[in-house]
Amino acid sequence: MVPSTQNAARFLLIAAGLICAVGMIGPFQGVEKAFVPADKAAHFIAFYGLTALMMAAFRKNRRLEIALSAALLGGSIEIAQMVVGRGVSLSDLAADAAGAFAVWTPMWLQSLRSGPYEERRAQAAKAAEIA
Q1: Looking at the 3D structure of the chain, how many domains does it have?
Q2: Alpha carbon of 90 to those of 21, 78, 94: distances in Å?
Q3: Each residue of 66-113: pLDDT tens digit?
Q4: Which residues, in sequence order, are CB contacts of 9 under 8 Å at separation 6+?
Q5: Rounded to the nearest 10 degrees, how much is the dihedral formed by the CA atoms of 112, 118, 119, 124?
Q6: Local structure of 102: helix, strand or coil
Q7: Which of 8, 16, 75, 129 has its CA 20 to 30 A from that of 44?
Q8: How many CA atoms, within 13 angstroms, populate the side-chain half-sphere of residue 131?
């Protein structure tokens, strides 16, 4: 039995989330510099990937809500860093939110180009019947 892409995305989301949480909250401060030289770029890349995985894992949820959830997760991580004695940075939070919304923005722009919601829904229903 081949796992669905949605289940694979959920598994990867859990794994990536744990890796990011350990890297951002754990005692490994500065470990991201081994992979990405700029701290803000590492935050952007991490939250871009997490948001993309969240959208793939939870396809029926609204994309804006997923992007906002990812940005709130970034805020939660900054609060957790304050609790464990690591540096808190609003610029890290901004990089987290930028990564999350970098996934959402092209999708939103595409939805502006598409027809009304009902037409897209009807097209999706027809595609589901064919598949």
Answers
A1: 1
A2: 18, 8, 6
A3: 999 999 988 888 888 888 777 778 888 899 999 999 999 998 888 887
A4: 53, 56, 57
A5: 100
A6: helix
A7: 8
A8: 6
